[in-house]
Amino acid sequence: MFDLEAYFERIGVSGQPDVAEIHRAHVAAIPFENLDPHRGLPVSLEPDALFDKLVTRRRGGYCFEHNLLLSAALQELGARVEPMLARVRLGAAAGDIRPRSHLVLRVHTEAGSYQADVGFGAGTLLEPIPFGPSGIHEQAGWRFRVIEDGKELVLQTQDGEIWRDLYGFVPEPVPRVDIETSNWFTSTHPRSPFVTGLIASFQETDGTRVLLSDWDELTLTEHAPGTAPAIAPIDRDAIPDLLDSSFGLPGFTLDTDGRVASAAPD
After folding, report:
1. Is position 266 annotated as part of the catalytic site?
2. Which of the residues in the chain have pLDDT under 50?
């Protein structure tokens, strides 16, 4: 049984919230982070492990964890949810085909079918959008749209005058075994950026995005809608304090190699 009351307390909602309210609250309450793969711990997608990590221990996670937790909550409320795997296009060179390492949801409610995604670390949807191409959707100053590219649906975001691809996916549900395989690659493969690098991010309800990452150089980025991002280089020794103060992730330190480690036994 999914403990809906504890999940609602974690994301700060009560009563009978609708899907959009739950989605927005989840994004604002639970950070995106890859601290477990970064420190050599495979990510478990077992329901009890997900709930314990993101709800009970108030950690964050990456797309598989976020969207499977959201899926369980919405199913508990009576929605029908179909998971789909996507290829991240953001930052990819032309013609570069990446693995299907991102999870997105199709949510069926009495009001219609929606694309939901609370786990895209570079700036996720604040609320679900109608599934499929359906015009431009503005959310707290950020603009999104879905286009068709062959068999794929592609989520794009507007950057100035340019529409940039975020990810593309074939709109077909995938079985659990495919999700587990993609998650295993993402959290354990020695060339996975979630293993080699560090990322933590969250998005406030006003649209402001905060990102800590060393995928290029170690920086803290704050980006409000309609403004240029403020990018500050960060000393590696500052990471534990930043995880605590900016992302609500206390209890971490650095090991002798400068990688994030737990300050207490797991």
Report:
1. no
2. none
**Active site (annotated) includes residue 66:** no
User: Tokens 């929605």 identify what position?
Assistant: 79
- Spatial distance between the Cα atoms of 71 and 239, rounded to a whole number of angstroms: 31
How far apart CA 64 and CA 50 sit, in angstroms, is 10
Among 80, 40, 72, 42, residue whose Cα is nearest residue 55: 72
Whether 244 is catalytic: no
Q: Which two tokens stand for residue 86?
A: 């996507």
Best CA proximity match to 121, nearest among 50, 179, 53, 198: 198
| Alpha carbons within 13 A on the beta-carbon side of 227 | 12
What is the helix (H) or strand (E) element at residue 177, kind and residue range? helix 176-188
Residue of 23, 26, 66, 117 with catalytic role: 117
Catalytic option among 23, 38, 102, 223: 102
Please tell me the predicted confidence (pLDDT) of residue 266.
61
Around Cβ 238, how many Cβ atoms within 10 Å?
Answer: 14
Catalytic residue among 63, 66, 165, 223: 63
C-alpha radius of gyration, the chain, whole number: 18
pLDDT of residue 95: 83
